Amino acid sequence: MLDSFLSVVKPLCLTEPVIDDTASPKAIKIAAVDLVLVMDTLYRNPTTYFDMLSCITGIDNGVQVATMEVVYNLYSIPFHHHLMIKVMLPRDRPEIDSVSHIWKTANWHEREVFDMYGINFKNHPDLRRILMPADWEGYPLRKDYTHQEYYRDIKVAY
Amino acid sequence: MPTDQIQYKSHPGNLILSEPNKLKVENLRSEEMIINLGPQHPSTHGVLRLEVLMDGEIVKEVVPHIGYLHRCFEKHGENLPYNQVIPFVDRLDYVASMNSEHAYAMGVERMLGIEQQIPKRVEYIRVLVAELNRIASHFIAIGTYGMDIGAFSPFFWLMRDREHILRLLEWASGARLLYNYIWIGGLFYDLPVGFEERCREFVSYIKPKIQELNTVLIENRIFVERTANVGVLPLDLAINCGVTGPMLRGSGLRFDLRKVDGYSVYPELDFDVPIGEGKMGKTGDCWDRTYVRVEEIYESLKIIEQCLDKLSSEHKRTRDFDPQALVPKKIRPKAQDLYVRAEIPKGELGFFFRADGKSDIPFRCKCRSCSFVNLSVLQEIAKGVLIADLIAIIGSIDVVMGEVDR
């Protein structure tokens, strides 16, 4: 099944997509520049038809590796297909295009990833913090995160 | 630390800075106003804050503000061994802990590759307690929804009946709401002796009560008038917004992960997936969602009866049965990424794990919560409704803020 997804994805990509077999569901790694085109095709193509975006996960690989990842879990209701799309981003300038114009559900998921990792989603209609207060400093789920000492004169350390 | 001292300086402006409104007063047109609902408001089912742009009594835009109950689940998940995360998983959807535990345990077992080895008795007990908890969760959903609309008695009846379930679960696990009962690879304890009989009694007790609920609340003229044709969620929008659970089924799609994925022992059990058919109004309205929940209670009762049959015949309690036999001493999955999902009363609960193969602690533990996604559809369906209907729509989504904010 993965091969047919790959054959759909491959012609669209500027950089060669890579298969990740260890992941479950099976994953395809693509470059950030190809994301919107790939996602839009996976959504529209009648053989793939991934009509549901289950989850968007942000991952910080730490300061040494200096990369961040965004993982998309796609699901197709009529075909019962799963697919994971992974995108690697540089840690010093994490930027990726938003897919919220394809799936509306991406709107809040991307806001959450932005909130927790500081990954900037370009063309997002409403990129604000969602879980943390708007004036919170830093991105809590980054591996090198240290919380601020005081938040509005309230001691943060417990 | 002295406690008689005020521990922080109070600045009234702080609130505005920490949670600023998205809508600006300057941009209001004539006759428009911004109304703030919550975070302390009985009909928001927790600490949900809504910023509502009103034109008279018509809602023009809704902006939900969440995060008031954020307890850093994912941060905890990244800093604790797999088995120690389970109590935190309980606290996600705190009215349906068993279901969340089941999903989480299933994910870790799948990573360890022991999913197929779990004894059938353990799986049947898991499904039994999860379905009991599903009924309890739907009771809360329907009861509080009735109260939002103005029906008071069904709430008390349902809370009374829910208490019977909670007592059963307390008997099994020792806790009333947050169980930590389903462990990775097994269970905390076997069912107590006599549980099956008591459970059967409960099933025969509850069936007429749900019939009563149907006549008093669901088919009640006032309830139908308040909910039918209100908050209609079309199916294409529902799928595009990632909505799952009774909300998606209320919009008319027969989609239940218990059937679709067939995890655990659900393929061996016989049950139906009820969907909304627009009996009282349009398909996908608030009434349909509530109706689906009521029908699901019947289906859950069916599952419970079958589980009890199996647990008292084929997979009977034996003296040497140890539900903790397969519980791994050290949980160290090999390096992999895994997304696991399961049907909890509100929809699809997913966990994304990244294991690095070197430690007992997940590198990343992400929770895809269904209430979070289901709530995001509110801005879409609440446009152009009356403010009273907005309350009806929030109730029908059945949000648990513990799960929205994590």
- Spatially, the strands of the biggest sheet of chain A line up as 1-2-5-4-3
Which pair of protein chains has the largest interface, and what are the residue counts? A-B, 44 and 48 residues
> What structural class is derived from the secondary structure elements of chain B?
alpha+beta
Total domains of chain A: 1
User: Major β-sheet of chain B, in short?
Assistant: 3 strands, antiparallel
Q: Taking Cα atoms only, what radius of gyration of chain B do you get, to the nearest Å?
A: 22 Å
Distance between the termini of chain A: 50 Å
Quaternary structure classification: heterodimer
User: Please, what is the average pLDDT of chain B?
Assistant: 87
> CATH-wise, what's the superfamily of chain B?
Cytochrome-c3 Hydrogenase, chain B
Shape of chain A: elongated
CATH architecture assignment name of chain B: Orthogonal Bundle
CATH topology category name of chain A: Beta Polymerase, domain 2
Could you give the order of the helices and strands of chain B?
HEEEHHHHHEEHHHHHHEEEHHHH
End-to-end separation of chain B: 30 Å
CATH superfamily of chain A: NADH:ubiquinone oxidoreductase Nqo5 subunit
- Major sheet of chain A: size, sense and barrel closure? 5 strands, mixed
Task: Characterise this structure.
The complex is a heterodimer of chains A (158) and B (406). With 158 residues, chain A is of the alpha/beta class. Helix content of chain A is 22%, strand content 29%. Chain A has a single domain (2-155), classed as Beta Polymerase, domain 2. In chain A, a hairpin with a 2-residue loop joins strand 8 (150-151) and strand 9. Chain B is an alpha+beta fold. Chain B has a single domain (73-405), classed as Cytochrome-c3 Hydrogenase, chain B, CATH 1.10.645. Helices cover 46% and strands 12% of the residues of chain B. Chain B has helices at 13-18, 73-79, 86-90, 97-112, 120-149, 153-173, 195-218, 221-227, 235-240, 246-250, 257-260, 286-312, 370-376, 378-381, 387-397, 401-405, and strands at residues 32-37, 49-55, 58-65, 182-183, 186-187, 336-344, 347-355, 364-368. Chain B has a 3-stranded antiparallel β-sheet with strand order 1-2-3. Chains A and B meet through strand 3, strand 5, helix 4 and strand 9 of A and helix 1, helix 2, helix 9, strand 6 and strand 7 of B.
